[in-house]
Amino acid sequence: MNPQGGHYLNKTAVLSPLGAVRLTELALGCTVISLVVHGAGYTAVYGIFCMVAWSACFALSAAIFALDVTRLHSCLPVSWENLTVTLAATSALLYLTASIVYPVYFVRNECPYNDCEVRNFRIAVTVCSWAAFVAYTVEVSLSRAKPARAASYMSTPSGLLKVVQAYVGCAIFITLANGSEFWRHPATVYCVVVFVLCFAVTALVVTLSVLGRTTFLNLPLDRFVVLCTFAAVLLYLSAAVTWPVFCFDRKYGTPLRPQGCPGGKCAWDSQLVVTVFCFLNLAFYITDLCCSQRARFVTRQPRV
């Protein structure tokens, strides 16, 4: 109910630019899922991942839109601004990944048995998926903090980078589980511990911000973020040096890909991917450290 005696439904959730973007996301998400189920199809782990990503984003967007229209989000013990921008950023990353993975594994130039219908469906899925990624990116842009104005933490560049860091951290864990053989050396085990610690702290900051419980920290949130990000930069820097040495140096590993190494189950491939993600996340943490120096945001208690 609206305690001010206004309309029960929030017309702004539909008629505003943000509402229009969310309706576009729902339309594109529904189109993608329908095309995949109707004719494009999906198989294997990569196809299942894409379908799960599209379905999860559609379900979350539908829930956010419904809660915003009905104003029921005021009953949730969360920071609504932090929650919506976090889910939009996560959905954008999921759509970006699916938009790359799906055409790589399922779209081919040739038509099997001279039947191009399936291929055309898969091309349409790819186009709609990229369009949805753009829509979620626009939502993040509309929700971002404006200069010289206090804002919720997750709408600042530092907060958005926290989402990216956590996402890349998850990608590292998935790659490590895919036969990376990180347990062979204590140094690589140390690197895994670094990845886990940094991910845990990043996830803690995101969770507390979304729940509106940053006052639980003994330090102001901005100072806590700077200290944790600085520590993460040092830890990731050590991992970025240690991991490649113990994976690709001749004394400990193999500098070149072994001949006959099975595709998709080669430890060398997984180690290389982890190396790339490690340097990528190091760059994100350094950028975050620079952004957090200028961050100005407000912390809000959840509405109950």
Automatic annotation (TrEMBL):
One of its GO terms (cellular component) is membrane. The chain crosses the membrane at residues 20-37, 44-67, 87-107, 119-138, 158-177, 189-212, 224-246. Its main location: membrane. Belongs to the MAL family. The keyword Transmembrane applies. PANTHER family: MYELOID-ASSOCIATED DIFFERENTIATION MARKER MYADM FAMILY MEMBER (PTHR17068), MYELOID-ASSOCIATED DIFFERENTIATION MARKER-LIKE PROTEIN 2 (PTHR17068:SF5). Residues 13-148, 153-297 form the MARVEL domain. This is Myeloid-associated differentiation marker-like protein 2. InterPro entries: Marvel (IPR008253), MYADM-like (IPR047123). The gene is LOC108270653. It is found in: Membrane. Pfam families: MARVEL. It is a multi-pass membrane protein. Keywords: Membrane, Repeat, Transmembrane, Transmembrane helix.
